[in-house]
Amino acid sequence: MPMAIQRISRSFKDISLSFEPHPITKDLPILKNESAIRRSVRNIVQTIPTERFFNSLFGSDVRSSLFEFVDFGTALIIKNQIETSINNFEERINNLIVEVNPNPDQNSFEVNIIFDIIGEEFPRQEYSFILEATR
Amino acid sequence: MPFTKYTNLDFDQIKTSIKDYLRANSDFKDFDYEGSNMSVLIDILAYNTYITSFNSNMIVNESFLDSATLRENVVSLAGNIGYVPKSRKASSAQISFNVTTNIDTPTLILKAGIVCVGSVDNTSYTFAIPEDIVSNVNNGQASFNNINIYQGIFLTKQFVYDGSLDQRFILDNSFIDTSTLKVYVKKTNDVNLGNEYFVSENIFNVNKNSRVYFLSEIQDEKYELKFGDGLIGKKLGDNQDGTIITANYIITDGKDGNGASSFSFSGTLETSSGTIIDPGTVVITTNQSSINGDEIETVDSIKYYAPKLYSSQYRAVTSRDYESIIKKIYPNAESISVVGGEELDPPEFGTVQISIKPNNGSFVSDFDKQQILSKIKQYSISGINQKIVDLKILYVELNSSVYYNYSQISSEDSIKTSVINSLEKYSKSSDLNRFGGRFKYSKVQQVIDNTDNAITSNITKITIRRDLQPIFNTFAQYELCYGNRFHINPQGYNIKSTGFNISGELSPVYITDTPTIITSEDEISDSTDSGNIFLNRPQSINAKTGILSLFKLDSNGIPTTVVKEAGVVDYEKGEIVLGTINITGTSTINNTIEIQAFPESNDIVGLRDLYISLSIPKSKINMVRDVIASGDEISGTRFINDFYTSSYSNGNLIRE
User: Fold this and answer.
1) Which tens digits make up the pLDDT trace of A72-90?
2) How far apart are CA B654 and CA B639, in angstroms?
């Protein structure tokens, strides 16, 4: 009799770094599927290269562009950096679109990252944040 | 279980094993993606493991003398077995000078500190003395004769002993020459330096009244002084010798200071009443240029000698024991040969013959010899006499014809320089330059061939040479051992020398040899047979010894015998004995007679106390064009005529 094949569903499960326990079960929070991938994309963009041990290329260097002129030129550089780093380190997504809009009055860039998750029936994901020099 | 491999020292491998573990034991899925939070945690875990395993590996390595790499750990481990590594050594020179003064003073004091400045390779170095030197003034003149000066800067450090247990007396400078260290202890109100304390390396003969201190190397090649506790060594304190410790020492540039031969005075002179005087111009005579400067003992050397000294347990029994103990009491020794008297020829039972090759020199001074002998007595077995004999250097000289393809070189001189440089490098290797060394012929040929691609081959002839240092104007006998069998040319020309003068003869004379031919029994059975091809051949020659003669050359180069039987040569033992002879002078500038021979084997061995040295300055490197390899000619006919080199020696009578 053939052994039953244990099927593992193609889902993603990651731990949350907030470490706030669930109010009832007291379990540590867990990020699943699209939220895990969204978190991953955010981690990649916000990690400064050389921050990770023995993986000095990991991350994107958008921070170094924050003190440049807030114009479309700088925005293009940031866009390229984000695209490169996500393409390099996150293989679970495709159709990546990165929009970076300079906001000279606020001295900030508005970043929109839009992507699809490969092989899953999730809607198109969108994740936005504002890059701003704080000092 | 993936976690069985504890020896991983690689971050990525550790990370992989953590991932393998998670893959098998949890329902988290995202650890494979670098951006995930899980990956951050795995990185931290792996990094932690990595640091821990690196630390444990390092700790275990550094805990053993064999594997330790950090100097302070090696020094500390060697300290556990009673070994104090040698410090940097100041280059020392000996000078004399006179000072004329019109001040009325019974004595002049040359103060400790800088004495003069000398220069080596266009760099100036200061030379100092660690203690005051006093000289009497006679008729307004004070002579400072044969004073030893040390390259470096004289420094003084003072400590006040406070009685606490954790007080440490650390000399703050690296590069200290500890042999110049002078330590004094005095009471607070004392004017002078106080009682001198002496370094002690072990507790032999140390009691509660011994004025000793112990010296140990600590971090960054600095030194710490430790004083007695009132049981082993005198304790410090007001009710003892005092609490003020003064340490005077010299910090030095080590071997960089070697070779200074002329000095200009810059010392301080004081009268007996303490007035500093201006000596005017002081002319310094150099008795001995600066020598014997050396770097601090290397980690490798500590690892080598510390266990040896420990295994000898401060007892000189075997020749290895002597090697490590002499290295300790005379740190300047580069190589030491110890031969038991029973191995000598003729045997001398009850003696131990020691030869020492000092760093940067060839001879140990008589004073040092006495010091070594008296110090080694306390380690050696009663009834055994030690004898330090002068180093006998057996020089190996090359006469090399180096063939080169001249289409591949820029100039003949440059390739000749390269050959000399690579031979120089080989001459410093450990194959040679030690007792029991061996000159390896094939290696040297390789060294020459591998110098440059343009070198196509070499024909190298070997001669061995010893320098005889005659005692002038005295009838004496001389014996030179080469330790290697000589090649015999039945016609002579085997032993050649430079010229020297003997009493009763005006022109310089030279040594030559005549082998004593012993013809063997006629083994040809039928000598009457005229068809016997062996009949007219010379019979076999069986020469073991020869007669040495002295001859002179007239203006046309025609030799005339001066002394027919001046000595004997033993070709088998490689030994030359000159009978009673009165030598009055030599043709060489350094008052030696160079006597050469051709070795039977091209590999030369340093037998017993012979120290092999490849003499590059006296070697001949002839550059010869290889016309065949260059493509000038293919047939080789010109090569045979014009560029031919014999592999055998020439028929010259005298050494050139």
Assistant:
1) 999 999 999 999 999 988 8
2) 29
